[in-house]
Amino acid sequence: MMRMLVACAMMLIPLLALAQTKAPAPAAAAPKAGDPIRVLLVPENEAVISSQIAARIVALPAALGSRIRKGEILVRFDCAEQAARLKMSESELASARETNASKQELKSYRSASELDVRLAASAVDKAQAQVNVVKAQMGYCSISAPFGGRLVRLRARAHETVAAGQPLLDLIDNSAFRFQLHVPSRWLSWLGQGAAFTIMVDETGKSYPARVRVINGRVDPASRTVELTGAVEGKHPELIAGMSGTAQFNER
């Protein structure tokens, strides 16, 4: 039995030595200048529009994919409750003003103290502040487009009741874009802001001239890459957000 164990051990020794001396698999070569780098087209302006009040949606005038002008109404809410609160607040303000005027008159006859007059004036200020609060809330009864663009996603429908802060729709501006890409950090030795490069967009099959606009101030230590933002030169109406492609740089 002992002889068999010794024989097996002697047979395993060469195999272990071979495994230890086996060369590791070669690492993937890092991109070189001239190699294509993947890029993503991102709009300069994009926003998720949310509700600022809890209310029922009366109408969503714009259709999905439609072009939106700046200031155009996107959402209308049912604000009957806010309108009633405004009317009540304005009535309280009128009452506070009458009380204040009465206290002022009584003071002239020495029938009201200075404290009574100050308290009446303070009540007017408080009622006015309440009116201003309700008017501000009434301003949330409709949502206007903060910039011109296209409606790319609807997250709610007419007649639904939404909560304050709930996302309602997504708006993007397709008139101006930037490209986002990651390049090897060692390229920073020759790549700088304003450097020219070429972008080939997959969806259009065309190439576009671009320049480096911003270089991120931090290198990702895991991938040893740095993020760049590039701007396309000229106007190209066929480009829309979400398109992707490759960028090609030439080392200077």
TrEMBL record:
Record carries keyword GTP-binding: no
Protein name: Efflux RND transporter periplasmic adaptor subunit
InterPro entries associated with the record: RND_pump_MFP
Stated family: Belongs to the membrane fusion protein (MFP) (TC 8.A.1) family.
Superkingdom classification of source: Bacteria
Gene Ontology, cellular component aspect: efflux pump complex
Organism whose genome encodes this protein: Massilia atriviolacea
Keyword vocabulary terms for this entry: Signal
